[in-house]
Amino acid sequence: MDDLRNKYLAAIADAADESALETLRVQAVGKKGEVSLKMRELGKMTPEERQVAGPALNALKDEINSALAAKKVALADKALDERLRAEWLDVTLPVRPQRRGSIHPVSQVWEECTAIFAEMGFSVAEGPQIDTDWYNFDALNIPGHHPARAEMDTFYMHRAEGDNRPPHVLRTHTSPVQIRHMEKHGAPCRIIAPGRVYRADYDQTHTPMFHQVEGLAIDKDISMANLKWVLEEFFSAFFEIEGIKTRFRASHFPFTEPSAEVDIQCSWEDGQLKIGQGDGWLEVLGSGMVHPKVLSAAGVDPAEWQGFAFGMGIDRIAMLKYGIPDLRAFFDSDLRWLRHYGFGALEVPTLHGGLSG
């Protein structure tokens, strides 16, 4: 027994890892281990021999088990010490910069437009993105043969056979919001209607889904002069350039009469667009006086009320202000693009604090 004790205690002390330790445990006190085999021999001994050998074997087994447990703890402590040394970190070093989220340029410009028009007394109106073709076309004096109503330009919702409900479309502009607002609140009113709109088009300056903000002002003595003032005030505030010149060109829209496309002053220098200077012009929106048929469709008496309306692309004016060359990049979810063109979460646009942060 002394030989077994010395043999295994020495081997346990020299064990390099838990795998070697488990091998020694099996060899010593496993079912077929040397100590276990010795204990099986007790049955062949005389009672007097068993009284001496039995306690001695049990003591040996306990001593080996205790040595195994102690060595296992020592190996675990050694592994922990090595891990702590390997994973050492100086907590006094500066922290790594954390990647932060950013506000999308569309969201930022949306808020900028809201802030500017709010200062001029406009409230925000909202409406459904899926609407009937009556609100999207008929109520806006758009005739049935108009190209905008063709399936190549407009997304129509599927209708089951026998469904007699009016056709529904993904709205092609936010003008239906104006109709719904006048139906509910009547006149006078002064609103903007920002939101998503949908058209079947896709290239560098067009995407199937984009964003618009439209404005509507209805009262008894509103004229094109009021429209011109509102737009010039907006452009000066939005581009943060005083005295931007505008040019109104006669045009035609079914929902306004007279109608005008609006250009702003600009110049091209070394391939860069500069707003508010030079002798060039850039088209930015469509506008006009609300057509009497549109007022009638919304339940407003055109003999008593009149007003103006305008509409512009939020994505487009964001591209102009922040120098973004491709509209499709707005919807690519490219984190590098978002980090470059995005805005901080606390850069809330206000007229007194600065729109662009």
From TrEMBL:
<dbReference type="InterPro" id="IPR002319">
    <property type="entry name" value="Phenylalanyl-tRNA_Synthase"/>
</dbReference>
<keyword id="KW-0436">Ligase</keyword>
<dbReference type="InterPro" id="IPR006195">
    <property type="entry name" value="aa-tRNA-synth_II"/>
</dbReference>
<dbReference type="GO" id="GO:0000049">
    <property type="term" value="F:tRNA binding"/>
</dbReference>
<keyword id="KW-0648">Protein biosynthesis</keyword>
<feature type="binding site">
    <location>
        <position position="257"/>
    </location>
    <ligand>
        <name>Mg(2+)</name>
    </ligand>
</feature>
<dbReference type="GO" id="GO:0005524">
    <property type="term" value="F:ATP binding"/>
</dbReference>
<keyword id="KW-0547">Nucleotide-binding</keyword>
<feature type="domain" description="Aminoacyl-transfer RNA synthetases class-II family profile">
    <location>
        <begin position="116"/>
        <end position="349"/>
    </location>
</feature>
<dbReference type="InterPro" id="IPR022911">
    <property type="entry name" value="Phe_tRNA_ligase_alpha1_bac"/>
</dbReference>
<comment type="subunit">
    <text>Tetramer of two alpha and two beta subunits.</text>
</comment>
<keyword id="KW-0067">ATP-binding</keyword>
<keyword id="KW-0963">Cytoplasm</keyword>
<dbReference type="GO" id="GO:0000287">
    <property type="term" value="F:magnesium ion binding"/>
</dbReference>
<dbReference type="Pfam" id="PF02912">
    <property type="entry name" value="Phe_tRNA-synt_N"/>
</dbReference>
<dbReference type="InterPro" id="IPR010978">
    <property type="entry name" value="tRNA-bd_arm"/>
</dbReference>
<dbReference type="GO" id="GO:0004826">
    <property type="term" value="F:phenylalanine-tRNA ligase activity"/>
</dbReference>
<dbReference type="Pfam" id="PF01409">
    <property type="entry name" value="tRNA-synt_2d"/>
</dbReference>
<dbReference type="InterPro" id="IPR004188">
    <property type="entry name" value="Phe-tRNA_ligase_II_N"/>
</dbReference>
<dbReference type="InterPro" id="IPR004529">
    <property type="entry name" value="Phe-tRNA-synth_IIc_asu"/>
</dbReference>
<dbReference type="InterPro" id="IPR045864">
    <property type="entry name" value="aa-tRNA-synth_II/BPL/LPL"/>
</dbReference>
<protein>
    <recommendedName>
        <fullName>Phenylalanine--tRNA ligase alpha subunit</fullName>
        <ecNumber>6.1.1.20</ecNumber>
    </recommendedName>
</protein>
<dbReference type="GO" id="GO:0006432">
    <property type="term" value="P:phenylalanyl-tRNA aminoacylation"/>
</dbReference>
<keyword id="KW-0479">Metal-binding</keyword>
<comment type="similarity">
    <text>Belongs to the class-II aminoacyl-tRNA synthetase family. Phe-tRNA synthetase alpha subunit type 1 subfamily.</text>
</comment>
<keyword id="KW-0460">Magnesium</keyword>
<dbReference type="GO" id="GO:0005737">
    <property type="term" value="C:cytoplasm"/>
</dbReference>
<keyword id="KW-0030">Aminoacyl-tRNA synthetase</keyword>
